[in-house]
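RECORD TYPE: inverse folding
INPUT: structure tokens
STRUCTURE:
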């Protein structure tokens, strides 16, 4: 009998446009004239950036609200 490991590594993310693997790197996120450097996964070929749902609905939503309230 073979045992399955419960700590399987997630599959690497692939660019939907180019089909190449995404790489971690600095990107500039801009909102209402304010720019912030952030480490995110991006396509080395076309520059498409992946923003996770957790980040978009969490920290990014908080920052957007703070900027809109100013």
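DESIGNED SEQUENCE:
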């Amino acid at each position: 009998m073979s045992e399955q490991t419960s700590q399987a590594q997630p599959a690497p993310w692939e660019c939907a446009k180019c089909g190449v693997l995404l790489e971690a790197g600095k990107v500039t996120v801009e909102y209402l004239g304010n720019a912030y450097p952030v480490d995110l996964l991006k396509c080395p070929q076309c520059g498409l950036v992946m923003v996770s749902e957790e980040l978009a609905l969490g920290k990014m939503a908080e920052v957007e609200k703070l900027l809109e309230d100013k």
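NOTES: The longest helix spans residues 59-69.
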